[in-house]
Design brief:
Elements: E1 37-38, H1 48-53, H2 83-96, E2 105-110, H3 111-123, E3 132-136, H4 142-149, E4 156-161, E5 171-176, E6 197-202, E7 221-225, H5 226-229, E8 237-242, H6 245-259, H7 264-283, H8 292-311, E9 317-318, E10 324-327, E11 332-335, E12 340-345, H9 352-358, E13 361-362, E14 364-365, E15 375-379, H10 384-404
Parallel strand pairs: 1-13, 3-4, 3-5, 5-6, 6-7
Antiparallel strand pairs: 2-8, 7-8, 9-12, 10-11, 12-15, 14-15
Helix pairs in contact: 2-7, 3-6, 8-10
The chain binds 4'-deoxy-4'-aminopyridoxal-5'-phosphate.
């Protein structure tokens, strides 16, 4: 039903591997036994086949005279937000049932990465003697630490693991649910002690292809991104649903000063894509339908099954197990099939990322997520060819491990 797309790969060489796009080979594949597969980034190329199948449904034509002005609607709190995008976002959340939008303000950003920074700026006290502490329970999304401290802001400072955090003063807890890297459903864990606490909920993966939708989320600040919902990471569109008007205004101000708004072309494209997704969910209900979430769920559950089958052949690696929960969107009990596999190497190998790199599989070390080097995060959203090669190589590792008891 869904053909295999050409793979983007990292070519192996005798020196260190670089990000080189390989040339297609004669048999139509691009990977060879020498290719290094890059499963370090969560690059959502898995969705390419779906969007190819959708043909021209999402084509957006933008003429030379369009989008000249910086401005969209100065009466709107987020003055650079395209009304078409706001409408598509609200409709999609209504159809999927994963977030409340009534009485929320929509703020658009250049990816949710920009909105994360806008939110930190908006909720950090501006007059505190010390920067607000930014914390997140381990294992946490590796970019939070890098982005938070990149500009050495006087407003906020990365303080690492939220477990046991008890510093006085203002703090911001980041709650990623489902979590990147381990796919678990999360809630805030810091007990407010001497300081004032604020929360940012990163719901990038709260979509029914990855996890059961158990209720519409209704937190103060919720971040979403097209990167994980539709797979259009390259369009760089994210959105925040924000309860408090002043916080939404401050987030918009951050984006005004940071990039004077957000690309109108990207917003129009995202509006179209999200609208087509909402149509697909509303009007179809078979597995062969246009529903991107049912498509995604099918692919993800096949991939997880293949991975669990190979990992289950020995005790060398282990994977988290997820509970079955009722998914309101699917109308049945489902299990999470996260965008990343959080894999642990149980014996002999101390540095799992280094070990897999030796087998031409690039992953992200657990150390980057505040944990240890026995863990790695492996992207499950690459294209079919890369994923299949990953499984093949893992199978070979298992055979050696079983044969030689490494
Ligand atoms: N939050 C989480 C938890 C993510 O995994 C990612 C992407 N890896 C982002 C935010 C960033 O998304 P965007 O591409 O919209 O900047």
């Amino acid at each position: 039903m869904f053909g295999t797309e050409k793979a983007r790969v990292v070519k192996s060489s005798s020196s260190s591997p670089g990000l080189v796009q390989s040339e297609p080979r004669e048999n139509g594949t691009t990977l060879s036994s020498h290719s290094v597969i890059n499963l370090d980034h969560g690059d959502p190329t898995m969705y390419e086949t779906y969007w190819q199948r959708m043909g021209d449904k999402c084509t957006v034509v933008i003429t030379g005279s369009q989008s000249l002005s910086y401005f969209v609607n100065m009466k709107n709190l987020c003055w650079f937000l395209q009304p078409e995008l706001e409408e598509s976002i609200k409709r999609l959340h209504r159809v999927v049932g994963n977030a409340v939008t009534k009485d929320y303000h929509v703020v658009v950003g250049t990816g949710s990465t920009q909105l994360f920074q806008a939110a930190l700026y908006a909720i950090s006290p501006s007059d505190a003697p010390e920067p607000a502490s930014v914390v997140c329970a381990v294992p946490y999304y590796s970019l939070y630490a890098d982005v938070t401290d990149f500009l050495r802001s006087g407003l906020y400072k990365w303080e690492g693991d939220a477990h046991g955090f008890d510093k006085d003063g203002a703090y911001i807890e980041l709650v990623t649910s489902p979590n990147n890297p381990d796919g678990t459903t999360r809630e805030a864990i810091v007990e407010p002690g001497g300081g004032e606490g604020k929360l940012i909920h990163d719901l990038a993966y709260y979509w029914p292809n990855f996890t059961p939708i158990t209720k519409p989320a209704d937190h103060d600040i919720m971040l979403f991104t097209a990167s994980k919902c539709s797979g259009h990471a390259g369009s760089r569109i994210g959105w925040a649903l924000v309860k408090d008007e002043d916080v939404a205004k401050k987030m918009s101000k951050f984006i005004e000063l940071n990039t004077i708004g957000v690309s109108k072309e990207s917003q129009l494209r995202a509006a179209k894509v999200l609208g087509v997704i909402a149509d697909g969910c509303q009007y179809c209900d078979s597995l062969d339908s246009d529903d991107v979430f049912k498509y995604g769920k099918l692919i993800m559950s096949e991939r997880w099954k293949k991975l669990r089958d190979v990992v289950g052949q020995s005790d060398l690696f282990s994977l988290p197990v997820y509970p079955k929960e009722y998914c309101n969107f699917m109308g049945k009990f489902t299990t999470s099939n996260p965008a990343f596999a959080w894999m642990k190497c149980n014996r002999l190998v101390e540095d799992c990322a280094e070990f897999l790199r030796g087998h031409k599989i690039l992953t992200r070390s657990g150390v980057r997520f505040g944990v240890d080097s026995k863990h790695v995060r492996v992207s499950m959203v690459s294209n079919d060819e890369e994923f299949d090669l990953f499984i093949e190589r893992l199978q070979a590792i298992q055979e050696i491990s079983n044969g030689y008891h490494i």
